[in-house]
Amino acid sequence: MKYNSDEHIDDQMIKIEVSLDDMNPEFYGYLMEQLFKFGVNDVYIVQVIMKKNRPGQVLHVLCREEIREKVMDFIFQETTTLGIRYTPYTVHRLEREFIEVETEWGKCTVKIGKRAGKIVQFAPEYEDCMQLAKEHQVPLKWVYDQAKEKGYQWLNEQKLLE
Amino acid sequence: MKYNSDEHIDDQMIKIEVSLDDMNPEFYGYLMEQLFKFGVNDVYIVQVIMKKNRPGQVLHVLCREEIREKVMDFIFQETTTLGIRYTPYTVHRLEREFIEVETEWGKCTVKIGKRAGKIVQFAPEYEDCMQLAKEHQVPLKWVYDQAKEKGYQWLNEQKLLE
Amino acid sequence: MKYNSDEHIDDQMIKIEVSLDDMNPEFYGYLMEQLFKFGVNDVYIVQVIMKKNRPGQVLHVLCREEIREKVMDFIFQETTTLGIRYTPYTVHRLEREFIEVETEWGKCTVKIGKRAGKIVQFAPEYEDCMQLAKEHQVPLKWVYDQAKEKGYQWLNEQKLLE
Amino acid sequence: MKYNSDEHIDDQMIKIEVSLDDMNPEFYGYLMEQLFKFGVNDVYIVQVIMKKNRPGQVLHVLCREEIREKVMDFIFQETTTLGIRYTPYTVHRLEREFIEVETEWGKCTVKIGKRAGKIVQFAPEYEDCMQLAKEHQVPLKWVYDQAKEKGYQWLNEQKLLE
Amino acid sequence: MKYNSDEHIDDQMIKIEVSLDDMNPEFYGYLMEQLFKFGVNDVYIVQVIMKKNRPGQVLHVLCREEIREKVMDFIFQETTTLGIRYTPYTVHRLEREFIEVETEWGKCTVKIGKRAGKIVQFAPEYEDCMQLAKEHQVPLKWVYDQAKEKGYQWLNEQKLLE
Amino acid sequence: MKYNSDEHIDDQMIKIEVSLDDMNPEFYGYLMEQLFKFGVNDVYIVQVIMKKNRPGQVLHVLCREEIREKVMDFIFQETTTLGIRYTPYTVHRLEREFIEVETEWGKCTVKIGKRAGKIVQFAPEYEDCMQLAKEHQVPLKWVYDQAKEKGYQWLNEQKLLE
Lengths: 162, 162, 162, 162, 162, 162
Fold this sequence. Notes:
The structure is a homohexamer. Chain A is of the alpha+beta class. Chain A is built from four helices and seven strands. Helix content of chain A is 31%, strand content 43%. The radius of gyration of chain A is 20 Å and the shape is globular. The two termini of chain A are 30 Å apart. The A-B interface holds A 13, 15, 28, 32-33, 36, 41-47, 60, 62, 87-94, 96, 111, 113, 115, 120-121, 123, 126 and B 17, 19, 22, 46, 48-52, 56, 58, 72-73, 76-77, 80-87. Chains A, B, C, D, E, F: This is DUF111 family protein.
């Protein structure tokens, strides 16, 4: 497990931001993929308007302070930026639990999020649903919906939703 | 009045950010409407690019530290997120004052913003203009422009713009 | 005058679209500037999500059919694309007229748009307002608002707004 | 009923586009609301980058050819544009049907879409779900998910999903 | 080869557009991947603002008329839409040619685009560069730049750039 | 020189954010141009979705704490906002160096970025390339690519890339 699965507040998080206005857009796919390998928590790209009519990008990376240096080294190496900025964030994360449900096309993991012990989030795993959709040539949305439905049934049986 | 109408610097503000990549876009309208009822200062959505070609959203909520917990509870309840991040911001707010002007279609509030006692902002209230535009079947832009013009006349008479 | 200033419907317009996912964002400023020199009617950039997590751009150029070939040659030359697509559009353009108003900081052109002889649009020219704002060190918004106000006064005197 | 509820192909549709770079963003809410009253099929705003570093908007309106003139009149009246462009589109629309399901919080409409008589779409109505969520103070997502689940049960009972 | 590699003008292209305001953003990755398998020419997502404050998406698919029906069937099946619109486009495509260059880390394909027999485009293949970057643990940008440089050398030797 | 050209970490940076939902988009060009004159480090615009279906903008300005007050005064003066928020950021900036290369069309500056003495960034200056492209009527991309190539040759001769 890469993350603490209990509910917790993490005040050692860092948001890294990089303004990019001269990088080949093809590079972002590789960049995101590699950044997740470093164990960062989140990566996303905001398309912005920069000076001189440039359709720029701001890369946002959320990670723990302890890997910040390594992540920044990588960003300097792989992007075209001359400066990286960062600021601390606090993150409140829910308790996470995984259950497995049986759909008519096969097993699917469902991720559960709990706040103070109570279930508040509940979502089938995309990768599992996609695998089943591909194998059985059924619409992804049908698989996803059924996984969700089966999950609700399980929760009701366990009396976890009152 | 929900806010301090004098010019002030508020260093107890919090920016809450929530990365969402699996939520039905229909839910945002309700979410924003409800968040404003909690007394948050600002809410906006940034459309971003997340991993695996997902057109995600980052919800930004600006609020006072004292309501942060309540707001976060609501966000966990109404969105699909498993984590919420936040960081402190300082906000400099202008003195606000409201005057009423008379357009040819009826009364309209005009909001004034003052910096060190001097008027720097000056804008007709959208809701009033829209009401008059609807009732009198005139273009909203005509109503807005006239309300602004009448406001300037009042300011000139009061010798508030030198 | 580069354009027909009477109200008219132009059914010889072409919308050119170019999907770009590997071009340095710095190049767009030059590209737009040059495209306008060819006499195109409009140019804008839409930031989009392309395959493989690429923050791509779709360049949109609106021009008359008669200059399409020349414009496309230029786009092939200056961008990185291997294909350009286009489709016909019809454009309804209002009658345009320019008047000059006198603000307290100097003269400013105001553009008027007429539909069936009746004024429906009315806007100070940005470049003029900006020049006055720079020279007199006054907020651009003050200059713009006053130019608009003076324009309305002129229209009222001429009984052009009833 | 404002629309043909059988599956059909409509080759009399028009896409209207309006490039706006000098309009108060507050006006869009009113504009969209009013456009839907004219019976247009779809309205959306694309945020784009225009010349001179302007964060412009392109308003897209999809409507039937027979109301195009009326819609364009309204757009000239309510926006700041001097030109409106349009081009024909063909639309393939699914057969639509509405059923009503009973959730634990009350009734909710579910919209069904059929392709060649077979159900392919299936979605609870947002407005109904939102009403129930507000009245019963339950998360909107819970209501939406349950309405969907109940709908699936009904479809299964009717043997409409094989 | 899936496409005509000579320069040509294709007037049998179709742009398909789908407005989506209630679909899980996770589904787009799968959707795009599958659409390319059908042989469509381009797919991209435009993030837009829809009614009721919805951060919607417009999916754009460019394909040949002959596969339009199959593509639309798939879109109805995999997305949540009740209507798909389309309009014809003409596409001008350059002649394409592929050469292979030798970088210090290995071979890399370079794609060349020709207009009337003259080279106007010239770009290393992303997938090749990425492979080399991963294998040799060098920055992707270094690999890409060197592949481009080697390609220019080859072109100069062949006297293809005069 | 306006900035420290050695590699350094600057923990006195401030990110200023301004949410704007009622400003004429034409004003942003002037605003950005002027902000850079104050010596701010970066300015960019994020297009967002605000309440009531408003296509708003969030202006982001990165500057040193010591000019924050002056910059905020200017923003209050030139925009329509009633409140400006800010938060501290730390910025890690690379060592910067400029070399001059000789292309077949003339001289061009190339900017180099160094991390711990080692070259990691390397990019031709846009303004120089654009000037040469205009004067010699050659594609900007050709000029840019050649300037980069010449720079690499120089680095190799100096044995700066091992």
